[in-house]
């Protein structure tokens, strides 16, 4: 390209020249909105803003940074100065340098025709006054001034596991750019682009610009429709000044020759990193000074890269000097694109792809193995996080993604296999884990970049093989010295729960607790809701510390902190399990008892203790709302029980007086647990009903209660007659129940906060146990309300014990019916559907459709439940925009617009079956997409 600017027609002031320059440039600069729907290589899934500018108006080519275009999937759109929008297609992202190109359709612009900005790399000179025009800090358009101070700044270091440029110099100026200005043109006074803004230093005004010589080459190739070849020696070079080169042993005669060849240069290239197993491994060493390639002197990155890009696959002769000794080596140029991943595997919610040169170079490890870009449901619960490099699966080495995919595809749903891996920052510490295959909640698919349209279409894996018939296995219960521990040894199991999707506000994806077998013939296990917080879960039981079997959720109590699981006794063969004996009553304050259970190391224990108090459980409100126990009396013991996972409270003969349960709660921003007793009277009716094969009859009152002393009740207006009746009825406690919170659902409609409960259907009710037993579908409650005795006709909803049974994934958000915790803890009415989670990089994230919000209408059509919501959104296509009316949990309304992306975030539903299992049902694609697919298949 010609870097000489045309002369101006008449002398103008500098201010006028800059005005004209910037006026023209502003038409070519666009704000880019990017959604990265998947983690990939060094990038996370996220939504971001950046800048790009037109470099070819006819072809619709935009230049920006590589970290904007992204090495992985990206959905982007440009917003021009006049606020016209155009979807963008990723055309090219450089494997190494921080530049890439988008394409837009010029015909999509109706009201403007932007002119391309001219690239002029030779005009970047020290002292040049420049302007950076872009979307700085998220602003629509900003103009930042500066002066080029350096042309040889070392590449910025953005940190390990992050994208870093190399084998180039950067240009530096003090222009104070920040986030959003990535990809901005760096203009001189004539309106020519002399560099590309790429980064900045947070603690200073320094900005870093990418030089344009290799950008110009790539643009010209794209304009001709030719591939942008990129070669590499998988070696990182640095530039060193002659004074340092002398200390490295550069001979005087060599310096003289190189200075004569390049009189304006004061530095040469030196080997800084060599990739193990790469073409220069064993041929070059750190500190080698590069002199010539195929006899031609080399001193700069631009010349080196020009040669390598033209010689991909060919052999070159390198001449270096090592400690004063001349060395020659023949090496083969590798294809940079071939060692830059362009495909990934979705498996169990995880993202896996070949280890990239970008990451292997940073950690100096061989370019071999499969990189875990996102841990997902399969790997995260095992503590295997992003950054793991998988070396083998099931004993088979996995040097590449294709091998790994073949091994995983051969495993059935629920199957298990060993995994050998290392963390990328600790490559010498090999680790082993056993993973469980999930092909239910998360389909397995390979996505590969299609440069024709910029998409990464999925290729679903074949259906998994049928799992083998389960084999019955037997073991014996552990032995214990204490007779109380031995009596329950055959009834205690460990409960482990994995949660694929965080619904109902749950804050964790993996939990553990202790279960108590309450029916060995039917296979019923009692546990707490900390061990099984939600119904959308995979649950496994460990029996006697020796055998593991799957379990299903038979019953979840919505607020009494217990769950009942079901397992197949035939899976345990001749294992002599025995149901715990349940006591006829709950313990009283002062009563001696035993705590029998499992410690965190899963060892049996028994501890003598006494009941300190039996009083109401009061836990702080979580934010956002989630499961929280309420409306029950807890058992507090005199002596601390340390390091316990859970168990039972028993009498001397081993009869169970209560469940030693873990209660989960939130204090400020911290999630905490406390161990307390759950009286047998509270949960025994549910157990007995399930033993009989019947559905438990329990009721949701729609309120939360706490105790109020009789003295306080008098201050509220309770008269002497009522006070005297209550004293006679309960001379020990002398307390009443007061309504603390009221559900926004229909069951809470008759109650008001502050109601003091006196009677239900004519019978005095002064404790939580009596209240729970008195509930029915309809009842009359006598309350003290605003110092007046009133009769309240109340209703209660039946408790199914099934928890949330339907979850919808839409636009990158999980949507469900309003959970109980939201209705009761925040008084939210049943007026919409609830957003329980959203994914970064999804339309929901871009549109700020946050978790803990209600969607009450879509395109003005009310959405009171999931069916209504589905009826409105079903049939919409990718790119369609919808208007959502939303409410936060405090009732504040908001109207947002959302644009669908069904390519990366298709609609599907998770449904609970009658047997407690879950299925995934993919929503039919929109008619337009289905027609396109049909035409493609024809």
Characterization of the model:
With 938 residues, the chain is α+β, with helices and mostly antiparallel strands. The protein folds into 6 domains: 14-223, Thrombin, subunit H; 235-335, PDZ domain (Pdz3 Domain, Roll); 368-460, PDZ domain (Pdz3 Domain); 483-691, Thrombin, subunit H, CATH 2.40.10; 699-798, Pdz3 Domain; 806-931, Roll (Pdz3 Domain). 16% of the residues lie in helices and 38% in strands. The chain has 18 helices and 58 strands. Strands 21, 22, 23, 24, 25, 26, 27, 28 and 29 form a 9-stranded antiparallel beta sheet that branches. Strands 50, 51, 52, 53, 54, 55, 56, 57 and 58 form a 9-stranded antiparallel beta sheet that branches. Strands 1-2-3-6-5-4 form a 6-stranded antiparallel beta barrel. β4 (75-79) and β5 (85-93) form a beta hairpin. The longest helix has 15 residues, at 14-28. The chain is elongated and about 110 Å long. 45% of the residues are buried. The model is unreliable at 929-938 (pLDDT under 50).
């Amino acid at each position: 390209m010609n870097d000489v600017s045309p002369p101006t027609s008449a002398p103008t002031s500098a201010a006028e020249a800059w005005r004209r320059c910037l006026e023209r440039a502003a038409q070519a600069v666009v704000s880019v909105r990017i959604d990265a729907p998947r983690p990939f290589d060094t990038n996370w899934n996220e939504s971001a803003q950046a800048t790009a500018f037109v470099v070819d108006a006819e072809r619709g080519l935009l230049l920006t940074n590589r970290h904007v275009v992204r090495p992985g999937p990206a959905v982007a759109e440009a917003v021009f100065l006049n606020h016209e929008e155009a979807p963008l297609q990723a055309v090219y992202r450089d494997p190494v340098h921080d530049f890439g190109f988008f394409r837009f359709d010029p015909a999509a612009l109706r009201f403007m025709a932007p002119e391309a900005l001219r690239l002029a790399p030779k005009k970047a000179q020290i002292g040049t006054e420049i302007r950076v025009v872009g979307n700085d800090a998220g602003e629509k358009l900003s103009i930042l001034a500066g002066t080029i101070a350096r042309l040889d700044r070392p590449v910025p270091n953005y940190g390990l596991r992050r994208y870093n440029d190399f084998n180039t110099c950067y240009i530096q100026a003090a222009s104070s750019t920040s986030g959003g200005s990535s990809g901005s043109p760096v203009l001189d006074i004539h309106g020519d682009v002399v560099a590309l803004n790429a980064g900045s230093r947070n603690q200073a005004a320094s900005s870093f610009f990418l030089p344009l010589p290799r950008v110009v080459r790539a643009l010209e190739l794209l304009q001709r429709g030719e591939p942008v070849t990129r070669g590499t020696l998988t070696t990182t070079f640095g530039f060193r000044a002659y004074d340092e080169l002398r200390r490295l042993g550069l001979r005087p005669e060599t310096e003289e020759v190189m200075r004569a060849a390049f009189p304006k240069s004061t530095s040469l290239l030196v080997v800084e990193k060599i990739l193990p197993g790469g073409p220069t491994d064993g041929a070059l060493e750190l500190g080698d000074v590069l002199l010539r390639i195929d006899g031609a002197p080399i001193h700069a990155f631009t010349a080196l890269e020009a040669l390598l890009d033209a010689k991909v696959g060919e052999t070159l002769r390198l001449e270096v000097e090592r400690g004063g000794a001349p060395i020659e080596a023949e090496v083969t140029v590798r294809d940079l694109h071939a060692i830059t991943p362009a495909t990934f595997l979705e498996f169990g919610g995880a993202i896996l792809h070949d280890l990239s040169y970008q990451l292997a170079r940073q950690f100096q490890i061989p370019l071999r193995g499969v990189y875990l870009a996102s841990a997902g449901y399969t790997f995260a619960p095992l503590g295997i996080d992003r950054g793991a490099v998988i070396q083998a699966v099931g004993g088979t080495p996995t040097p590449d993604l294709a091998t790994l995919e073949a091994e995983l595809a051969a495993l059935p749903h629920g199957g298990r296999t060993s995994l050998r891996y290392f963390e990328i920052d600790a490559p010498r510490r090999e680790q082993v884990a056993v993973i469980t295959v999930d092909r239910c909640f998360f389909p397995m698919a390979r996505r590969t970049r299609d440069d024709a349209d910029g998409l990464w279409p999925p290729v679903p894996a074949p259906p998994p093989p049928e799992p083998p018939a389960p084999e019955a296995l037997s073991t014996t219960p552990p032995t214990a010295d204490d007779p109380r521990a031995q009596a329950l040894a055959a009834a205690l199991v460990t409960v482990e729960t994995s949660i694929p999707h965080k619904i109902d506000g749950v804050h964790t994806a993996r939990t553990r607790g202790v279960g108590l077998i309450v029916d060995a013939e039917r296979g019923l296990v009692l546990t707490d809701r900390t061990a099984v917080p939600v119904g959308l879960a995979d649950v496994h039981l460990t029996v006697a510390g020796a055998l593991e079997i799957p379990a299903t959720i038979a019953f979840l109590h919505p607020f009494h902190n217990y769950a009942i699981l079901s397992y197949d006794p035939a899976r345990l063969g001749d294992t002599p399990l025995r149901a715990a004996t349940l006591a006829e009553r709950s313990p009283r304050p002062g009563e001696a008892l035993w705590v029998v259970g499992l410690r965190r190391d899963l060892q049996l224990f028994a501890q003598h203790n006494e009941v300190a108090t039996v009083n109401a459980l009061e836990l702080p409100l979580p934010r956002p709302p989630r499961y929280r126990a309420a409306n029950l009396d807890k058992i507090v013991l005199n002596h601390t029980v340390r390091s316990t996972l859970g168990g039972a409270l028993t009498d001397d003969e081993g009869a169970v007086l209560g469940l030693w349960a873990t209660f989960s709660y939130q204090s400020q921003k911290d999630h905490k647990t406390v161990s307390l007793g759950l009286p047998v009277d509270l949960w025994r009716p549910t157990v007995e009903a399930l033993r009989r094969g019947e559905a438990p009859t329990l009721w949701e009152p729609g309120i939360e209660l706490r105790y109020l002393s009789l003295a306080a009740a008098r201050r509220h207006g309770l008269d002497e007659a009522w006070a005297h009746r209550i004293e006679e009825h309960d001379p020990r406690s002398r307390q009443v129940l007061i309504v603390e919170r009221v559900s926004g659902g229909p069951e809470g409609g008759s109650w008001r906060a502050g109601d003091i409960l006196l009677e239900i259907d004519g019978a005095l009710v002064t404790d939580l146990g009596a209240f729970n037993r008195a509930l029915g579908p309809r009842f009359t409650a006598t309350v003290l309300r605003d110092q007046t005795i009133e009769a309240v006709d109340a209703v209660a909803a039946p408790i199914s014990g099934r928890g949330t049974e339907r979850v919808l994934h839409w636009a990158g958000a999980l949507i469900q019916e309003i959970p109980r915790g939201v209705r009761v803890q925040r008084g939210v009415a049943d007026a919409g559907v609830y957003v329980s989670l959203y994914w970064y990089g999804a339309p929901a994230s871009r549109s700020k459709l946050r978790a803990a919000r209600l969607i009450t209408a879509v395109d003005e059509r009310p959405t009171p439940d999931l069916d209504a919501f589905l009826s409105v959104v079903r049939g919409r296509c990718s790119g369609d925009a919808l208007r959502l009316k939303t409410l936060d949990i405090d009732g504040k309304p908001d109207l947002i617009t959302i644009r669908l992306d069904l390519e990366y975030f298709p609609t599907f539903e998770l449904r609970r079956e009658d047997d407690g299992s879950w299925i995934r049902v993919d929503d039919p694609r929109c008619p337009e997409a289905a027609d396109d697919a049909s035409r493609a298949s024809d």
